[in-house]
Specification:
The complex is a heterodimer of chains A (196) and B (86). Chain A is mainly α and 196 residues long. Chain A contains nine helices and no strands. Chain A has two domains: 80 residues, Orthogonal Bundle (Rna Polymerase Sigma Factor, Chain: A); 94 residues, Arc Repressor Mutant, subunit A (Orthogonal Bundle). In chain A, helix 1 packs across helix 2 and helix 3 crosses helix 4. The longest helix of chain A has 25 residues. Chain A is elongated. The N and C termini of chain A lie far apart (47 Å). Chain B is mainly α. Chain B has one domain: Anti-sigma factor, zinc-finger domain (Arc Repressor Mutant, subunit A, Orthogonal Bundle), CATH 1.10.10.1320. In chain B, 67% of the residues lie in helices and 0% in strands. Chain B is built from five helices and no strands. In chain B, helix 3 packs across helix 4. Classes of the chains: A mainly alpha (196), B mainly alpha (86). At the A-B interface, helix 2, helix 3, helix 5, helix 6 and helix 7 of A face helix 1, helix 2, helix 4 and helix 5 of B.
Chain lengths: 196, 86
């Protein structure tokens, strides 16, 4: 049984520690996601409301989606109905290259090729000194890219689950993911270029 | 230097296909063009490795711990909810 289904059984049988572990696992990720829809002062409230809704909905949750997908769906629906902090109809189709075009020559080949940073990033991650930076970078992504990156890459959800939670088409999900990941890659490169 | 065919990708195009490639959503033709490009381009091979590493590092973020006070608040929330159920 996956850890979430076990948690669900314990929750339904009234195990308060199961609820606290669920909160332990998802509260902070939910706050980060909510903050992309509403101002952060309101995000706290939205997440609190979500936990209440989760408790109230436990009995009727049918397990047709994973517990995680269900939690994030409740959250996103609440965050959306609470009101958006920005115009959210930014067209996905706006061109936004993965790499600054000035790094390519006239023939479309690399003029300023990617600098190597993988090992440096690994060792800084091992030393526990990179996670906060990555969180900050994700926090600075445009809202829609951030939402997709948080769910796909931080939470490890599938593209189907992310589309269901955020009400996106597969194609738009992929475009947002591509832009978000491309920006993050650039930030890694910048970070390790500076320390040399 | 090998001759550039019209169907060959240039680096600027290849980097736009990386996510589609990793997602398995490229057409057979695009996938072959992408792979053919990588085979001859160490920079785009490096770029792909960096995108994979970006995903891997992002996936290693762990949720921050709740403060003891928050643990207490959520325990209370759960107990209040349980007592309303009875």
């Amino acid at each position: 049984m996956d850890p979430d289904s076990e948690l669900l059984l314990r929750l339904r049988s009234g195990d308060e520690r199961a609820f606290v572990s669920l909160v332990e696992r998802y509260h902070e990720p939910m706050l980060r996601l909510a903050a992309s829809f509403v101002p952060s002062a309101v995000a706290e409230e939205v997440v609190q409301d979500t936990w209440l809704a989760v408790l109230r909905g436990l009995e009727s949750f049918e397990g047709r989606s994973s517990l995680k997908t269900w939690l994030f769906r409740i959250l996103v629906n609440r965050a959306r109905s609470t009101g958006s902090k920005e115009q959210r109809t930014v067209p996905v189709a706006d061109p936004e290259p993965a790499v600054d075009p000035s790094r390519f020559g006239g023939d479309g080949g690399w003029a300023d090729p990617p600098e190597h940073w993988i090992e440096a990033a690994e060792s800084r991650m091992e030393a526990g000194k990179l996670a906060d930076r990555i969180r900050a970078w994700i926090g600075e992504l445009p809202a829609r890219q951030r939402e997709v990156v948080l769910l796909r890459d931080v939470e490890g959800m599938s593209s189907e689950e992310v589309c269901a939670v955020l009400a996106l088409t597969e194609g738009n999900q992929r475009v947002l993911l591509h832009r978000g990941r491309s920006r993050l890659r650039q930030l890694f490169e910048d970070e390790f270029r500076e320390v040399r | 230097m090998k001759l550039l065919h019209r169907r060959d990708l240039v680096c600027r195009q290849a980097v736009e296909l990386v996510t589609g490639y990793l997602e398995g959503s490229l057409s057979g033709r695009d996938r072959r063009r992408f792979e053919a490009h990588l085979a001859g381009c160490p920079h785009c091979t490096e770029y792909l490795a960096q995108m994979r590493e970006t995903i891997r590092l992002t996936g290693r973020l762990e949720p921050e711990d709740l403060t003891p006070q928050m643990r207490e608040e959520f325990t209370d929330l759960y107990r209040r909810w349980r007592s309303e159920q009875q």
